Amino acid sequence: MASTTCAPAVSAQGEDAVVRRVAEVFERALGAAPAGEVWIGDDAAVVAAPAGRLVFATDAVVGGVHADLSLTGLDDLGWKALTATLSDIGAVGGRPGYAVVDFCVPPGTDLVLLATGVAEASAEWGCPVVGGDVTASSQVVVGAAATGVLEGDRPPVLRSGASPGDRLVVTGALGASAAGLRLLRAGARGPASAIAAHRRPRARLAEGLVARRAGATAMMDVSDGLGIDLHRLAEASGVGIALDTVPVADGATEEEAVGGGEDFELVIATPDPTRLAEAFAAAGLRPPIEIGRCTGDAAERTLWGRPLARAGFEHVLG
Amino acid sequence: MASTTCAPAVSAQGEDAVVRRVAEVFERALGAAPAGEVWIGDDAAVVAAPAGRLVFATDAVVGGVHADLSLTGLDDLGWKALTATLSDIGAVGGRPGYAVVDFCVPPGTDLVLLATGVAEASAEWGCPVVGGDVTASSQVVVGAAATGVLEGDRPPVLRSGASPGDRLVVTGALGASAAGLRLLRAGARGPASAIAAHRRPRARLAEGLVARRAGATAMMDVSDGLGIDLHRLAEASGVGIALDTVPVADGATEEEAVGGGEDFELVIATPDPTRLAEAFAAAGLRPPIEIGRCTGDAAERTLWGRPLARAGFEHVLG
């Protein structure tokens, strides 16, 4: 955990001591580096090269923007940061490799709790955290970058590969994260599954790997909401979208399912949904859920024949 | 530039529009992805695997912490973020590969200017920015993660490899960045070199590659100040440090040279400083500057025989 810093050294809780405590969190979760690799503790990590093409992604989560820290824990924020990034790796058909994490925290933040959530995600998804940075800031920001590997010769599954006639499926019902947030705000009366989905979202890594092998033509994760993310897939592919249904998660509303975001289910285009369903079944995965199809009218965006709102979450940056 | 977000979409300056403008900045600086690679625009980037071991590092810079944005530009902050990370790649003897960048910005921030500084560093150091994330925050934070390649079979040059008797050298005079900040605060009367060193620090990438090939035993970049960074190298290697001199940059004070930080010169341990100097000369690099030696008394930290203060910059996080 090397760092470029500008705050005067004054305290026993200075950077080096804190970095050691954070490093211990990751070593407890993941063990030490194998022989020949360098993980946390030097200027940079050195690890084995991927046996295939290199996949690379990053996401940052911000306390107060991506999570209400009065409702969920710092560990949940840490979990979400790494899980969101690994979801992006999986959404092109990649397998996670290694992660590095930037922790930007106000003085007094429970950095060990924050790192514990990252370490739990790291262990869950099999992606060692091999380095990072700790820096002072006025707001909690966790930036998680991860490498991955794209195995074999097949191309990655991009947003741009869908063709008219392809069927669209999702890997699970939607809206659970938004429902969980609503339930937490109301004092948490409702399905525990929704609250868990909000606090500890799952990355659909196995689904992404299987979908790539089973001939998916386009894929992305539903991070900002199906409404907005499907517009992105349609624009990238130059196809229209006609949805017949949107599967609604337990406890969620239809509006949350269309526009909720942060579910991290995958939306997949395929010319052969039966082959995809069989591959999912063979891998022991939940059945993919058909929601509609890609059309040749690139301007079409419909749900039950009515216009599909560009619904979801965008940062306002202008 | 995929993103997990929680702010309602309301504006023409929403995330997608801003991400497109940022992507254009990087495409102008670096051109489009070569055939078979996926850069900015999908869930994750897909690039060639490194021809050697994978090096991986990250650094975050925070407006108001790592830079006074009333004295230096957002482009300078962006430059510093990526340069600091690539300095870490170089400090183990790696060559930069690819970068991903998180931009966390308050509404109204000139994100194009911020990205332009990152793109300029990206072009300067030959490290394409292939992805990233844009998110809202209350303070400007730029997190830059980069891969690199460690070529050949030689081990990386870590902080922990120095032995008693090794000579210590630095790749340049120190204190320029701190002097530049002092001069900017005073209205910028003084050497332009110091101000440039503060606004646009250099990563000593060629020096790191040559030092590894020329038998360096330990290496790190001087990011937090020679005083504190040499303590770290000595602790990692289990050696003492006895310095004879500290080269002071034009316009800097001796205190700034010892404790200033952010110079990003490399400090290198080697049993054969003549071989190192010859290798630097053969590569057309500035001569390394001998500053002292490693000793067998692991508790020793001296400069001209007097105790070397643990001087430098640590974030206060407790």
Structure description:
The model of chain A is unreliable at 1-12 (pLDDT under 50). Chain A has 2 domains: 15-150, PurM-like, N-terminal domain (60s Ribosomal Protein L30, Chain: A), CATH 3.30.1330.10; 159-307, PurM-like C-terminal domain (Phosphoribosyl-aminoimidazole Synthetase, Chain A, domain 2, Alpha-Beta Complex). Chain A has 9 helices and 12 strands. Chain A is an alpha+beta fold and 318 residues long. In chain A, strand 3, helix 3 and strand 4 form a beta-alpha-beta unit. In chain A, the strands form 2 sheets. In chain A, strands 7-9-6-10-8-11-12 form a 7-stranded mixed β-sheet, with helices on both faces. The first copy, chain A, has a 4-stranded mixed β-sheet with strand order 2-5-3-4. Helices cover 32% and strands 22% of the residues of chain A. Chains A and B meet through helix 1, strand 1, strand 2, helix 2 and strand 3 of A and helix 1, strand 1, strand 2, helix 2 and strand 3 of B.
Strand content of chain A: 15-25%
SSE topology string of chain A: HEEHEHEEEHHHEHEHEHEEE
Described by its quaternary structure, the protein is homodimer
Domain count of chain A: the total is 2
Mean pLDDT of chain A: 92
- Return the CATH topology of the largest domain in chain A: Phosphoribosyl-aminoimidazole Synthetase, Chain A, domain 2
Secondary-structure class of chain A = alpha+beta
CATH superfamily of the largest domain in chain A: PurM-like C-terminal domain
With helices defined by DSSP (H or I, 4 residues minimum), what is the helix count of chain A?
A: 9
The CATH class of the largest domain in chain A, by name, is Alpha Beta
